Amino acid sequence: MDSFGRVATDLRVSLTDRCNLRCTYCMPAEGLEWMPRADMLTDGELNRLIRVAVCDLGVTNLRFTGGEPTLRKGIEGIIAAAAALTPRPRISMTTNAIGLSRRAAALKAAGLDRINVSLDTLRPDRFTELTRRDRLADVLDGLAAARTAGLDPVKVNTVLLRGVNDDEAVPLLRFCVANGYHLRFIEQMPLDAQHGWSRAEMVTAEQILTALRTGFELTPRPGARGAAPAERWLVDGGPADVGVIASVTRPFCGDCDRTRLTADGQLRSCLFSQTETDLREPLRAGASDAEIAGLWRGTMWAKLAGHAINEAGFAQPARPMSAIGG
Ligand code: SAM
Ligand code: SF4
């Protein structure tokens, strides 16, 4: 729990900072200086921290992310270890879906419950421009394989960029509704390695909804939103829906239930934290589970009220999204 009464039950674990795409809004064409391997948590260290989070600290939802989580060797084993915990957490993953067509069934068998696939365009030329790799067909195959494997729900995450893919809101929603994927638009945030984000350029939730309403009738989805970041709308009366995650223009920090672990064992209470708590060194120095849990509790207690993107003096964190875990 933090000092504002929020309870962190959702743990985002970054399995690697490396990636096989180079999305322009995330990292530069040449990639980044990757974490030294020796700094990365081993599978055993990760499993132990996840056990402490689930069994001692009350985490009920786990999401594996990165970088590209499927680049982590042994991901099936890490998922299986998490799925064997009591109480069993719900397990999900955020991925670009490259190679997923070959791996979805094994990930499901290991214990993965659901999946979020990032897809910003349905046009091959644009995909290549946006991700700097010609892999759209792989992503579409990966999505289909996730559904066939029984991962449920299969969500699609889309970031719209002005003048790049902001004319695809309607086609993307049509595609997702037709295939049974749940689409979520995410406002672009100041978390890119190149520090290229601009408030004037970002496509806002309001603009996304206006674009969607040119093709669909949207009505607010009944039911409580809780700690879910997406505001959801029924599409043409339902049952399909669409979500918009308005992290910048309608922040939901007051209901945030997240805690984050980076691939090199640093704990963060927020995507935008300026400070981290090192769990790797205590772990390697022989700290007990109780000591690790104590460090974790202390970090979360100090969680700030909000991310302050909209306040004067906001500073982007030193780590980019790909190294924190998005
Ligand atoms: N590589 C995986 C993927 O792309 O799904 C997982 C990591 S990626 C950092 C997680 C999500 O963050 C993706 O949906 C991506 O589109 C999104 N993302 C990356 N940079 C972002 C930014 N500056 N603002 C908003 N979302 C961003
Ligand atoms: Fe890789 Fe995901 Fe960043 Fe794209 S958004 S470069 S897929 S980490």
Structural commentary:
- This protein is α/β, with parallel strands linked by helices and 326 residues long.
- It has one domain (10-324): Alpha-Beta Barrel (TIM Barrel), CATH 3.20.20.70.
- 30% of the residues lie in helices and 16% in strands.
- It has ten helices and twelve strands.
- The chain has helices at 43-56, 75-83, 100-110, 124-131, 136-149, 169-179, 205-212, 280-284, 289-301, 321-324, and strands at residues 10-14, 61-65, 90-95, 114-118, 154-158, 182-186, 218-220, 231-235, 241-245, 258-261, 266-268, 277-278.
- A twelve-stranded mixed beta sheet has the order 7-8-9-6-5-4-3-2-1-10-11-12.
- A hairpin with an 8-residue loop joins strand 11 (266-268) and strand 12 (277-278).
- Helix 1 (43-56) packs parallel to helix 2.
Q: Which geometry do the CA atoms define?
A: globular
CATH class: Alpha Beta
Which runs of at least 5 residues are low in confidence (pLDDT < 50)?
A: none
- The CATH topology is TIM Barrel
Distance, first to last CA: 22 Å
Question: Strands, helices and their partners?
Answer:
Blueprint: E1 10-14, H1 43-56, E2 61-65, H2 75-83, E3 90-95, H3 100-110, E4 114-118, H4 124-131, H5 136-149, E5 154-158, H6 169-179, E6 182-186, H7 205-212, E7 218-220, E8 231-235, E9 241-245, E10 258-261, E11 266-268, E12 277-278, H8 280-284, H9 289-301, H10 321-324
Helix pairs in contact: 1-2, 1-9, 2-3, 3-5
Bound molecules: S-adenosylmethionine and iron/sulfur cluster.
Iron/sulfur cluster binds next to loops.
